[in-house]
Amino acid sequence: MTTYAVGDLQGCHEEFVALLERLDFDPRRDEVWLAGDLVNRGRGSLDCLREAMALGDAARVVLGNHDLHLLAVARGGARIKRKDTLDAILAAPDRERLLDWLQSRPLVVHQGDTLMSHAGLPPHWSPEQGEALAEEVAERLGSERSGAFLEGMYGNEPARWRDDLDGLDRLRAIVNTFTRMRFIAADGTLDFSAKEGLDSAPPGFAPWFQYPRDDDPRLLFGHWAALEGKTPGSRVRAEALDTGCVWGGALTALDLETGERVSVPSRH
Q1: Of the ranges 76-80, 103-107, 112-116, 252-256, which one carries the lowest mean pLDDT score?
Q2: Which residues contact 28 (CB under 8 A, 6 or more apart)?
Q3: Alpha carbon of 98 to those of 74, 201, 214: distances in Å?
Q4: Which one, out of 44, 64, 71, 165, has a CA that is 20 to 30 A from the CA of 102?
């Protein structure tokens, strides 16, 4: 059995199929961890959802910000954006089955000393705390109040985590951390304005992986295509998976045992 972690698909279905073929991936034997953002921007978002769902237990998938946006558009009353490529999903005959499956995915996969989320894990959260906080969001997504949560999920506040946060503020802070985090301040405040490379850090902010931790988990994340799969200056065991397939880069798989990376070029 081989376990691979793959960066953001974002609708790159042809490349996903090509990558699995290159890996000689067999769902009866192997496992693939998908770092979120299965959909949006690319032309094959519907097929990516269907492909991932068809892999069954061989695929472990976390939610990214684009996946949550799809759910918010379909079930939370959010407006579709000009650059979105979600129409095929919303019009698909199997949309409800696909959306139910997506909505049941977690924000975190945690196994042994390895944790994967879409955007990473801040230094002030242990893997165990992060997993517990992610479960709070999963419980709300699986409840009758999921629509209200998806409707109220958007926003940049609160930008800094506090243990006494409650209600939608608490859930929003958890979601923003796991799906939108890039640069943070020493006190854990998130910045949502800078989205490019490391030289775009606002004053007083640094990439979350450049802060030390008291423990030593292996942290897998996508979300940040501008890093091109690298984590310069990292002070933790962080491994970037998003190599910008939808932007003309590549789709990359990381063998979790050997550390070997295999990529296929974008067809966009």
Answers
A1: 76-80
A2: 58
A3: 11, 37, 39
A4: 165
Total domain count, the chain: 1
pLDDT of 207 strictly over 90: yes
For residue 143 the two structure tokens come to 């409840």
Q: Specify the CATH number for the domain of residue 185.
A: 3.60.21.10
Q: Per-residue DSSP letters for 150-217?
A: HHH-----S-S--TT--HHHHHHHHHHHHHH--EE-TT--EE-S--S-GGGPPTT-EEGGGS--SS--
Q: Which two tokens stand for residue 37?
A: 């953002």
CA distance 4 to 14: 18
Q: How far is CA 63 from CA 75, 163, 205, 223, in A?
A: 16, 23, 25, 11
Q: State yes or no: pLDDT of 268 exceeds 90.
A: no
> Whole domain around residue 228: which residue ranges?
3-265
Percent of the chain's residues with pLDDT above 90: 99
Q: What is the mean pLDDT of residues 66-74?
A: 98
Q: What is the pLDDT of residue 24?
A: 97
Tokens found for residue 90: 């919303």
Nearest by Cα to 218 from 260, 259, 166: 259
At 237, the amino acid letter reads R
DSSP 58: G
Buried b (16+ CB within 10 A) or exposed e, 132-142: ebbeebbebbe
pLDDT at 148: 94
